[in-house]
Amino acid sequence: MARENGLSNQFVAIADDGTGDLLCLRIGNSKQMLEEIYLGSHESGKCEQMYSNLVELIMEQ
Fold first, then answer.
1. Domain that residue 44 falls in
2. Rounded to an integer, what distance in angstroms lies between the CA atom of residue 41 and that of residue 23?
3. Cα(21)–Cα(29) distance, rounded to whole angstroms?
4. How wide is the angle at C-alpha 30 spanned by C-alphas 25 and 33, nearest 5°?
5. Which domain of life is it from (predicted)?
């Protein structure tokens, strides 16, 4: 479903925010998951960094 909404192959969806947007991790050049958490827009298909890591995401909730 994420790919159908335009999510780039360099991102992996880890959660839905309840509005159709996705929380994502990015795959780095060495095929490892990076720490930053991105918000993938279901309307534009673009991802924007929202948190520097999972701890920051949890602390802001």
1. 11-59
2. 9
3. 25
4. 20
5. Bacteria
pTM given for the model? 0.83
- Cα–Cα dist 24/17, whole Å: 10
- Indicate whether 55 belongs to any domain: yes
**Do 51 and 24 form a contact (C-beta atoms < 8 A)?**
no
Residue located via tokens 């720490």: 35
Read off the pLDDT of residues 1-48 as tens digits, 9 standing for 90 and up.
455 567 888 999 999 888 989 999 999 999 999 999 999 988 888 899
Q: DSSP 3-state assignment of 16?
A: strand
Residues 6 or more apart whose Cβ sits within 8 Å of residue 49:
36, 37, 38
